[in-house]
Amino acid sequence: MNIGTSKAERTRNFIIEKTAEIFNRKGYAGTSMSDITEATGLTKGSIYGNFENKEEVALAVFEYNRSLVFNTVQAQLEKAETYFDKMMVYGSVYKDVIASVGNRGGCPILNTAVEADDTNVPLQLSAAKALFSWKKNLVDIIQRGIAAGEFRDGTDAEGMAVSIIALIEGGVMISKVTNDYANMDRVLATVQQLVKGIRA
To answer: In this model, does residue 102 exceed pLDDT 70?
Structure first.
């Protein structure tokens, strides 16, 4: 039998899916085992039969929440035909991403990075890994765009990637704190201007 369809795997996935929004809203420290058992309808013994501890659940949930965002963006990237269009995706799609994850407690990377900073190394490392992956994807698109003649030679791909990530995550934070998602429009317009600025 395929391990992905085993009862244990289905139970793990069930726990992850049922607790994903709770962890994203309440954070690791704020989510109790009672929250987990209430959301899943499972006993504490069943939870610990599938995960070693709450931290292991949180790590799996973070990856699940991160993948929801990643998959939404990736679907739009695959539709974009040029490297310029791919970069412009980041200046448009995140409004929809943030609107959807906003209903689930906000951006999982931002939430986890802020909460885990200096308090939970495994979660902090997971957030860092997600950011490094995001940056790598952006740098790769920019470098390919330079090679294809779409972006200017000498463009600082890494600097541009970090700036775009900082703008988007900052926009998420401001929009969530103020409950005004018009702020995200302003941030994404700035991202688009940055991308247009490196066009060859």
So the answer is: no
Mean pLDDT of 82-90: 95
Q: How many independent structural domains does the chain possess?
A: 1
Q: Are 39 and 19 in contact (CB under 8 A)?
A: yes
- Name the residue with tokens 């035909």: 81
CATH of the domain at 189: 1.10.357.10
Q: Is residue 31 part of a domain?
A: no
Cα distance from N-terminal residue to C-terminal residue, the chain: 53
Q: Is residue 125 in some structural domain?
A: yes
- Other beta carbons within 10 angstroms of residue 113's beta carbon come to 18
> What range does the domain containing 98 cover?
61-197
Condensed to tens digits (0 to 9), the pLDDT of residues 24-58 reads 888 888 889 999 999 999 999 999 999 999 999 99
155 three-class SS: coil
Spatial distance between the Cα atoms of 8 and 16, rounded to a whole number of angstroms: 12
